[in-house]
Amino acid sequence: FSYFAFNNAEAAELQRLIAVEQQKAQFQAQVHNFTDVCWDKCMDKPSSKLDSRTETCLVSCLERFIDTTLTITNRFTQMVQKGAH
Amino acid sequence: MDNQGVTTDPQLQQFIEIESQKQRFQQLVHQMTEVCWEKCMDKPGPKLDSRTEVCFVNCVERFIDTSQFILNRLEQTQRSRGTFSETMTD
Description:
Chain A is mostly helical. Chain A has helices at 8-42, 52-83.
């Protein structure tokens, strides 16, 4: 098996596999980021189980973080569009 | 040694796999130590009392629970709202 003589079909398949792995990695990175952010916001002193108040906070945290990202994205887009010469 | 020697030596492969595993484990330990130190350690005293120890145990377990909870929630969101990944992956 030679590493440097892919035919088109093999190259396309490899690209597809790489894209899938990249997507998986990106998703995992998001999960880790959200876990860090929302752990800080929602977890007081860790207890013997995940109570419903904490779970509610985690859900809110996820949703508000996404809202915030969208709001800031839109704002910046507006600023760029207005300021573009 | 020919070019294929590095990637097909099973002993070397296993060695690399074990070292990678050790590295991942150490990384996890460091991360959890940092996270749970923040949550559980008030003013450090002359010894690690049992209340703090219990907190550490809870901390690790709840962190895993939280991680899993968020994973499930995101998967749920992705299934119902397909555009989620478009807004978050730039």
